[in-house]
Amino acid sequence: MFDARFNRLLAPGLAKLAGGLGRLGLRADQMTLAGFGCGVLAGCAVIPGWFWLALGLFALNRLADGLDGALARLQGPSDRGAFLDIVADFLNYGWLPLCFAFYDPANALAAAFLLFSFIGTSTSFLAYAIMAERRGGGLAAPPEPGRKGFFYLAGLTEGAETILVLAAMLIWPASFIWLAVFFGLACWLTTGWRIYAGWQDFPAPAPAAEDGFLLAEKGQMIEYLTLLCLSGQIEDWTCKTSLGMRR
């Protein structure tokens, strides 16, 4: 819900910092992996109850997540980078609640509900992104700056809200159960909204078969026949048929 505003607010500072790191030879994928490592260590610090250390490591994880995107925009985005970024985010977001269950088994049920809720938001998010990409990605575009490397559908519980809630859990670990249940319910509101959006935005069968693979094959065949026509290697009636296929 607040991601676009935070991106606009933080983008200039992140771009400046990323420029300096880029001049030192740091690559976006390296930053993603370093941030992922900080996220894993943050969860490990939760298990023995070292919450302030976990909060510091989680803050480094989130800083790295902002810097890898800024570096990618300076160095040139890649599909691999976008893939690593979202996988690392989802794994870190799931790891912290699990570690709260390891810290205190009384948290296990709330942690399970929150992880179940994350499955709803993440699958609806990625399923919508896949369908939108198949249709050309023209349904909605993320705002600049901070454009994502994949199709992005907004919701009530986006990255900023998730970060704030996970940070609140680390600051007030005794309130984990209430925070997990509250945020889990909010996640299901987001999931419901995305299901509704998908139902509305994808009413007809996707034209992927005809306009994707089959159309590409047809286009290659047309180009080949056209070249044969121009070179005089096939009969006139075949040329007319092949050129007629262009309509």
Multimeric state: single chain
Average pLDDT number: 77
> What's the shape?
flat
Low-confidence stretches: 138-152, 208-219, 224-231, 233-247
Question: What characterizes the major β-sheet?
Answer: none
Write the H/E string, N to C. Answer: HHHHHHHHH
Structural class label: mainly alpha
Taking all Cα atoms into account, the compactness measure Rg is 24 Å
Distance between termini?
44 Å
Total helices: the number is 9
Task: Report the helical percentage.
Answer: over 70%
**Strand residue content:** under 5%
DSSP summary, beta strand count: 0
Please characterize this protein's 3D structure.
The structure is a single chain. By secondary structure, the chain is mostly helical. 29% of the residues are buried. α2 runs antiparallel to α3 (51-75) and α3 (51-75) runs antiparallel to α6 (159-171). Helices cover 77% and strands 0% of the residues. The longest helix has 27 residues, at 108-134. The radius of gyration is 24 Å and the shape is flat. The protein has nine helices and no strands. Mean pLDDT is 77; it is low at 138-152, 208-219, 224-231 and 233-247. It has helices at residues 3-23, 28-46, 51-75, 79-103, 108-134, 159-171, 176-201, 208-231, 236-244.
